[in-house]
Design goal:
Erythroid Transcription Factor GATA-1, Chain A; rod-shaped; 70 residues; 1 helix; binds zinc ion; two-stranded antiparallel ribbon; mainly alpha
């Protein structure tokens, strides 16, 4: 009986990852890869709310004031 091991590309390091029950970190190749990817996601989510208000302020600051009706 031949057991074929399915392999996928690890989203963490781009290397080969065993996609099987023997790999609890699938589709990642290892625990550090999984944790690193999760950390990147978390920090990115924390950064997004910070960036948006700054962008808004920049846009508002660059716009000329609306003409006043007279
Ligand atoms: Zn990896």
């Amino acid at each position: 009986m031949v057991t074929t091991t399915r392999k996928v590309k690890c989203p963490g390091c781009g290397g080969e990852s065993v996609y099987a029950a023997s790999n609890p970190y699938r589709p990642f190749c290892s625990g550090p890869c999984k944790n690193h990817d999760f950390g990147a996601w978390a920090s990115e989510q924390h950064r997004l709310p910070d960036d948006n208000p700054v962008d808004d302020f920049d846009i508002v600051g660059d716009l000329p004031p609306p003409p006043l009706p007279q």
